[in-house]
Write the structure tokens for this entry.
Amino acid sequence: MIVPPVLVAVVESARCSPTSLTDLGHLLQVLGTFLGLSLFSLGGGNTLLSEYQHLSVDQFCWLTSSQFADLYALAEAAPGPSSMLVGLLGLGAAWPEGPWWALLSGYGAELAILLPSTLVMVLACLSWNRLKDSPWRIAFERGLGPITLGILFQVGLKILHTADTNAAGVVVSLVVCVLMLRTRISPLWFMACAGVLGGLGVINR
């Protein structure tokens, strides 16, 4: 059953109200949240998408599901790494405190998610070549492949669940999935077609 977007928004607002914090409290909450997640971004920022959605929508109530899906689409469409989403989530988290706090929170969230993992990767790369002939390194690298693919597959399902709230959106998603698996058409064409359909009102949330 397709649930009207207005009803979804009413239900979300009824079950989730943002935590009452000071400006500084919101900022510290954002920084602490993404610092804790930074070292778990195995395979890239998108692997933490389900946790981002749970924290920002369900736990802290920074955003609605529709807003989260919009920010994810914006982050993916813009040039740059997928972790750009975190900056947008931080921006949305502190927006009620005003634009300056929102900008500070956005930049803080981005630094919090990137800095610890980057430092760990730099340290790992400096010593990784010493283990180039070790069977442990080969086993570790081979084991991470299926794990990362499984996480990314789950992320794709999460996005479909969050974004598709009408029949047309579900059909378009299924067609794109089949074409991506069966053809070598550039994903940019799919994005362009979906954008046109959204602009015409065929796909909406």
Summary: The radius of gyration is 19 Å. Residues 28 and 105 are 9 Å apart (CA to CA). Confidence is low (pLDDT under 50) at residues 5-14. Residues 20-134 form one domain.
